[in-house]
Protein backbone atom coordinates (compact mmCIF):
# COMPACT_ATOMS: atom_id res chain seq x y z
CA UNK A 1 0.00 0.00 0.00
CA UNK A 2 2.68 2.46 1.02
CA UNK A 3 4.80 1.48 -1.94
CA UNK A 4 1.84 2.11 -4.19
CA UNK A 5 1.47 5.61 -2.81
CA UNK A 6 5.15 6.31 -3.31
CA UNK A 7 5.13 4.88 -6.84
CA UNK A 8 2.09 6.88 -7.89
CA UNK A 9 3.41 10.11 -6.39
CA UNK A 10 6.74 9.55 -8.09
CA UNK A 11 4.95 8.92 -11.39
CA UNK A 12 2.95 12.11 -10.96
CA UNK A 13 6.13 14.00 -10.16
CA UNK A 14 7.98 12.62 -13.14
CA UNK A 15 5.11 13.49 -15.46
CA UNK A 16 4.99 17.03 -14.12
CA UNK A 17 1.56 16.59 -12.61
CA UNK A 18 1.45 19.25 -9.87
CA UNK A 19 -2.29 18.67 -9.51
CA UNK A 20 -1.48 15.41 -7.68
CA UNK A 21 0.47 17.24 -5.00
CA UNK A 22 -2.13 19.95 -4.90
CA UNK A 23 -4.81 17.35 -4.27
CA UNK A 24 -2.79 15.88 -1.39
CA UNK A 25 -2.00 19.36 -0.04
CA UNK A 26 -5.68 20.31 0.06
CA UNK A 27 -7.12 16.96 1.16
CA UNK A 28 -9.33 17.06 4.29
CA UNK A 29 -6.92 14.73 6.09
CA UNK A 30 -4.06 17.12 5.36
CA UNK A 31 -6.19 20.03 6.57
CA UNK A 32 -6.49 18.30 9.96
CA UNK A 33 -2.70 17.90 10.14
CA UNK A 34 -2.23 21.55 9.18
CA UNK A 35 -4.44 22.54 12.10
CA UNK A 36 -2.41 20.29 14.41
CA UNK A 37 0.79 22.03 13.25
CA UNK A 38 -0.77 25.45 13.85
CA UNK A 39 -1.89 24.41 17.36
CA UNK A 40 1.59 23.09 18.19
CA UNK A 41 3.18 26.31 16.91
CA UNK A 42 0.92 28.40 19.10
CA UNK A 43 1.78 26.29 22.16
CA UNK A 44 5.52 26.63 21.45
CA UNK A 45 5.16 30.41 21.18
CA UNK A 46 2.94 30.71 24.24
CA UNK A 47 5.41 28.65 26.29
CA UNK A 48 8.25 30.87 25.02
CA UNK A 49 10.02 27.99 23.29
CA UNK A 50 10.41 30.09 20.11
CA UNK A 51 11.25 33.75 19.52
CA UNK A 52 10.95 35.89 16.42
CA UNK A 53 10.63 33.59 13.44
CA UNK A 54 12.48 30.80 15.31
CA UNK A 55 11.47 27.15 15.46
CA UNK A 56 9.91 24.92 12.84
CA UNK A 57 7.45 22.04 12.66
CA UNK A 58 6.87 19.33 10.08
CA UNK A 59 4.80 16.20 9.60
CA UNK A 60 5.21 13.32 7.17
CA UNK A 61 2.32 12.65 4.79
CA UNK A 62 1.76 9.46 2.80
CA UNK A 63 4.31 9.00 0.04
CA UNK A 64 7.06 10.71 2.08
CA UNK A 65 5.69 14.14 1.30
CA UNK A 66 6.50 16.55 4.15
CA UNK A 67 4.16 19.27 5.36
CA UNK A 68 6.20 22.01 7.06
CA UNK A 69 6.13 25.54 8.42
CA UNK A 70 7.28 28.39 6.17
CA UNK A 71 10.36 30.51 6.72
CA UNK A 72 10.19 33.93 8.39
CA UNK A 73 6.94 33.38 10.27
CA UNK A 74 6.30 33.58 14.01
CA UNK A 75 4.86 30.28 15.21
CA UNK A 76 2.40 32.34 17.26
CA UNK A 77 0.89 33.92 14.13
CA UNK A 78 0.93 30.93 11.80
CA UNK A 79 -2.18 30.05 9.78
CA UNK A 80 -2.97 26.68 8.24
CA UNK A 81 -2.99 28.09 4.69
CA UNK A 82 0.61 29.32 5.11
CA UNK A 83 2.18 25.85 5.41
CA UNK A 84 4.30 24.28 2.67
CA UNK A 85 4.64 20.84 1.08
CA UNK A 86 8.11 19.53 0.15
CA UNK A 87 9.53 16.18 -0.87
CA UNK A 88 12.50 14.41 0.76
CA UNK A 89 14.81 16.22 -1.69
CA UNK A 90 13.56 19.56 -0.33
CA UNK A 91 11.70 20.46 -3.52
CA UNK A 92 8.87 22.88 -2.73
CA UNK A 93 5.71 21.29 -4.18
CA UNK A 94 2.89 23.42 -2.75
CA UNK A 95 2.45 26.50 -0.60
CA UNK A 96 2.38 30.24 -0.97
CA UNK A 97 5.57 30.76 1.08
CA UNK A 98 9.08 29.25 0.98
CA UNK A 99 9.71 26.34 3.36
CA UNK A 100 11.61 26.76 6.64
CA UNK A 101 15.36 27.13 6.21
CA UNK A 102 15.79 24.31 8.75
CA UNK A 103 13.87 21.78 6.68
CA UNK A 104 17.10 19.90 5.88
CA UNK A 105 17.33 18.90 9.57
CA UNK A 106 13.78 17.52 9.43
CA UNK A 107 14.39 15.69 6.15
CA UNK A 108 17.52 13.96 7.47
CA UNK A 109 15.50 12.70 10.43
CA UNK A 110 12.66 11.42 8.22
CA UNK A 111 15.19 9.61 5.99
CA UNK A 112 17.05 8.07 8.94
CA UNK A 113 14.05 7.14 11.12
CA UNK A 114 11.05 5.57 9.34
CA UNK A 115 9.03 5.76 12.58
CA UNK A 116 9.39 9.55 12.68
CA UNK A 117 6.08 11.04 11.54
CA UNK A 118 6.63 14.53 12.96
CA UNK A 119 9.61 16.73 13.86
CA UNK A 120 9.80 19.91 15.94
CA UNK A 121 12.83 22.16 16.34
CA UNK A 122 12.69 24.99 18.88
CA UNK A 123 14.69 26.95 21.46
CA UNK A 124 13.19 26.41 24.94
CA UNK A 125 15.39 28.36 27.38
CA UNK A 126 16.38 25.73 29.96
CA UNK A 127 17.09 22.97 27.48
CA UNK A 128 18.85 25.44 25.19
CA UNK A 129 20.90 26.67 28.16
CA UNK A 130 22.18 23.10 28.55
CA UNK A 131 23.00 23.04 24.82
CA UNK A 132 24.92 26.33 25.17
CA UNK A 133 26.83 25.09 28.22
CA UNK A 134 27.54 21.75 26.55
CA UNK A 135 25.94 20.00 29.52
CA UNK A 136 23.76 16.94 29.01
CA UNK A 137 21.29 16.76 31.90
CA UNK A 138 21.94 13.85 34.26
CA UNK A 139 19.64 10.86 33.93
CA UNK A 140 17.56 8.59 36.18
CA UNK A 141 16.08 11.44 38.20
CA UNK A 142 12.51 11.96 36.96
CA UNK A 143 10.19 9.18 35.82
CA UNK A 144 8.39 11.20 33.11
CA UNK A 145 11.71 12.08 31.50
CA UNK A 146 12.92 8.48 31.62
CA UNK A 147 9.69 7.13 30.15
CA UNK A 148 9.18 9.54 27.28
CA UNK A 149 12.73 10.58 26.43
CA UNK A 150 15.46 8.84 28.47
CA UNK A 151 19.10 9.70 27.87
CA UNK A 152 19.51 12.92 25.88
CA UNK A 153 22.11 13.35 23.14
CA UNK A 154 24.08 16.51 22.40
CA UNK A 155 24.87 17.10 18.72
CA UNK A 156 27.89 19.28 17.80
CA UNK A 157 27.50 22.79 16.45
CA UNK A 158 27.22 23.60 12.78
CA UNK A 159 25.85 26.65 10.99
CA UNK A 160 22.03 26.48 11.09
CA UNK A 161 20.27 25.73 7.83
CA UNK A 162 23.22 23.97 6.21
CA UNK A 163 23.49 20.31 5.17
CA UNK A 164 26.35 19.97 7.68
CA UNK A 165 24.03 21.15 10.47
CA UNK A 166 21.33 18.70 9.41
CA UNK A 167 23.85 15.85 9.47
CA UNK A 168 24.95 16.54 13.06
CA UNK A 169 21.98 14.62 14.47
CA UNK A 170 22.50 11.47 12.40
CA UNK A 171 24.70 9.58 14.89
CA UNK A 172 22.01 9.97 17.57
CA UNK A 173 18.61 10.25 16.00
CA UNK A 174 17.68 6.56 15.75
CA UNK A 175 18.05 5.98 19.49
CA UNK A 176 17.11 9.43 20.77
CA UNK A 177 13.77 11.12 20.12
CA UNK A 178 15.15 14.33 21.66
CA UNK A 179 18.54 15.89 20.89
CA UNK A 180 20.23 19.02 22.23
CA UNK A 181 21.80 21.06 19.43
CA UNK A 182 25.01 22.75 20.62
CA UNK A 183 24.79 26.57 20.72
CA UNK A 184 21.33 26.41 19.19
CA UNK A 185 18.30 24.58 20.66
CA UNK A 186 16.64 21.19 20.54
CA UNK A 187 14.96 18.85 18.06
CA UNK A 188 12.34 16.18 18.85
CA UNK A 189 10.67 13.55 16.67
CA UNK A 190 7.57 11.48 17.39
CA UNK A 191 4.67 9.64 15.79
CA UNK A 192 2.50 12.79 15.78
CA UNK A 193 3.03 16.55 15.89
CA UNK A 194 1.23 16.68 19.23
CA UNK A 195 3.55 14.10 20.76
CA UNK A 196 6.67 15.83 19.39
CA UNK A 197 5.40 19.01 21.06
CA UNK A 198 4.89 17.06 24.30
CA UNK A 199 8.54 15.96 24.17
CA UNK A 200 9.66 19.60 23.90
CA UNK A 201 7.69 20.25 27.10
CA UNK A 202 9.06 17.17 28.87
CA UNK A 203 12.73 17.97 28.14
CA UNK A 204 12.33 21.67 28.95
CA UNK A 205 10.58 20.96 32.24
CA UNK A 206 13.19 18.33 33.08
CA UNK A 207 16.14 20.65 32.47
CA UNK A 208 14.48 23.37 34.55
CA UNK A 209 13.51 21.03 37.39
CA UNK A 210 16.96 19.46 37.64
CA UNK A 211 18.56 22.90 37.84
CA UNK A 212 16.22 23.88 40.69
CA UNK A 213 16.61 20.56 42.50
CA UNK A 214 20.40 20.86 42.39
CA UNK A 215 20.15 24.17 44.17
CA UNK A 216 18.28 22.38 46.95
CA UNK A 217 20.55 19.34 46.96
CA UNK A 218 23.67 19.23 44.73
CA UNK A 219 23.93 15.44 44.93
CA UNK A 220 20.59 14.16 43.71
CA UNK A 221 19.68 10.57 44.41
CA UNK A 222 18.86 8.52 41.32
CA UNK A 223 15.85 6.28 40.75
CA UNK A 224 17.02 2.77 41.78
CA UNK A 225 18.50 0.74 38.93
CA UNK A 226 15.85 -1.99 39.26
CA UNK A 227 13.11 0.61 38.80
CA UNK A 228 14.87 2.02 35.74
CA UNK A 229 14.84 -1.52 34.32
CA UNK A 230 11.07 -1.57 34.83
CA UNK A 231 10.78 1.66 32.88
CA UNK A 232 12.99 0.26 30.11
CA UNK A 233 10.81 -2.84 29.90
CA UNK A 234 7.76 -0.62 29.50
CA UNK A 235 9.50 1.46 26.83
CA UNK A 236 10.43 -1.68 24.96
CA UNK A 237 6.83 -2.86 25.12
CA UNK A 238 5.58 0.51 23.85
CA UNK A 239 8.29 0.81 21.21
CA UNK A 240 9.72 4.04 22.56
CA UNK A 241 13.36 4.60 21.56
CA UNK A 242 16.00 4.60 24.28
CA UNK A 243 19.75 4.40 23.81
CA UNK A 244 19.98 1.96 26.73
CA UNK A 245 17.68 -0.48 24.93
CA UNK A 246 19.69 -0.38 21.73
CA UNK A 247 22.89 -0.91 23.72
CA UNK A 248 21.43 -4.10 25.17
CA UNK A 249 19.10 -5.33 22.44
CA UNK A 250 18.53 -8.82 23.79
CA UNK A 251 19.03 -8.29 27.52
CA UNK A 252 15.54 -7.01 28.35
CA UNK A 253 13.47 -9.37 30.48
CA UNK A 254 9.73 -9.78 30.17
CA UNK A 255 7.96 -6.63 31.29
CA UNK A 256 7.09 -6.70 34.97
CA UNK A 257 3.72 -5.66 36.33
CA UNK A 258 3.54 -1.96 35.60
CA UNK A 259 2.70 0.55 38.32
CA UNK A 260 -0.67 2.28 38.14
CA UNK A 261 0.82 5.47 36.73
CA UNK A 262 2.61 3.58 34.00
CA UNK A 263 -0.61 1.76 33.17
CA UNK A 264 -2.28 5.11 32.70
CA UNK A 265 0.61 6.20 30.52
CA UNK A 266 0.33 2.99 28.56
CA UNK A 267 -3.33 3.65 27.94
CA UNK A 268 -2.54 7.16 26.80
CA UNK A 269 0.34 6.00 24.67
CA UNK A 270 -0.75 2.70 23.26
CA UNK A 271 -0.32 4.24 19.85
CA UNK A 272 3.42 4.42 20.47
CA UNK A 273 3.60 0.67 20.66
CA UNK A 274 1.54 0.30 17.51
CA UNK A 275 3.56 2.93 15.74
CA UNK A 276 7.03 1.87 16.71
CA UNK A 277 6.94 -1.80 17.60
CA UNK A 278 5.43 -2.35 14.21
CA UNK A 279 8.55 -0.92 12.59
CA UNK A 280 10.53 -3.99 13.54
CA UNK A 281 7.83 -6.27 12.21
CA UNK A 282 7.38 -4.38 8.98
CA UNK A 283 6.01 -1.21 7.44
CA UNK A 284 2.35 -2.13 7.45
CA UNK A 285 2.16 -2.75 11.20
CA UNK A 286 3.41 0.74 12.08
CA UNK A 287 0.15 2.59 11.80
CA UNK A 288 -3.11 2.85 13.60
CA UNK A 289 -6.26 1.81 11.74
CA UNK A 290 -7.27 5.42 11.16
CA UNK A 291 -3.87 6.11 9.63
CA UNK A 292 -4.24 3.08 7.39
CA UNK A 293 -7.64 4.40 6.35
CA UNK A 294 -6.03 7.73 5.53
CA UNK A 295 -3.36 6.04 3.46
CA UNK A 296 -6.02 4.03 1.68
CA UNK A 297 -7.92 7.18 0.81
CA UNK A 298 -4.81 8.95 -0.43
CA UNK A 299 -3.92 5.90 -2.45
CA UNK A 300 -7.32 5.94 -4.10
CA UNK A 301 -7.03 9.64 -4.90
CA UNK A 302 -3.53 9.33 -6.29
CA UNK A 303 -4.34 6.25 -8.32
CA UNK A 304 -7.24 8.15 -9.89
CA UNK A 305 -4.89 10.99 -10.78
CA UNK A 306 -2.32 8.63 -12.21
CA UNK A 307 -4.96 7.16 -14.50
CA UNK A 308 -6.00 10.54 -15.90
ZN1 LIG B 1 16.83 27.08 15.45
TrEMBL record:
<dbReference type="GO" id="GO:0016832">
    <property type="term" value="F:aldehyde-lyase activity"/>
</dbReference>
<dbReference type="InterPro" id="IPR036409">
    <property type="entry name" value="Aldolase_II/adducin_N_sf"/>
</dbReference>
<keyword id="KW-0479">Metal-binding</keyword>
<keyword id="KW-0456">Lyase</keyword>
<dbReference type="Pfam" id="PF00596">
    <property type="entry name" value="Aldolase_II"/>
</dbReference>
<dbReference type="GO" id="GO:0019323">
    <property type="term" value="P:pentose catabolic process"/>
</dbReference>
<protein>
    <submittedName>
        <fullName>Putative L-ribulose-5-phosphate 4-epimerase</fullName>
    </submittedName>
</protein>
<dbReference type="InterPro" id="IPR001303">
    <property type="entry name" value="Aldolase_II/adducin_N"/>
</dbReference>
<feature type="domain" description="Class II aldolase/adducin N-terminal">
    <location>
        <begin position="35"/>
        <end position="211"/>
    </location>
</feature>
<dbReference type="InterPro" id="IPR050197">
    <property type="entry name" value="Aldolase_class_II_sugar_metab"/>
</dbReference>
<dbReference type="GO" id="GO:0046872">
    <property type="term" value="F:metal ion binding"/>
</dbReference>
<dbReference type="GO" id="GO:0005829">
    <property type="term" value="C:cytosol"/>
</dbReference>
Amino acid sequence: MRETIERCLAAGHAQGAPGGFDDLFHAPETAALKEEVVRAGRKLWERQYVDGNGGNISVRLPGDMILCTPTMMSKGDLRADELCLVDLDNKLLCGCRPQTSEILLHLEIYKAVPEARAVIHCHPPYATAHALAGVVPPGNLLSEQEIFIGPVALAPYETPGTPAFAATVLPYVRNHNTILLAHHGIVCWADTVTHAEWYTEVIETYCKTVMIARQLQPNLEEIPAAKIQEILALKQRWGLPDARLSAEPKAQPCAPAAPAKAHAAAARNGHHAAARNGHAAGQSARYRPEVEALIAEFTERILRLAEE
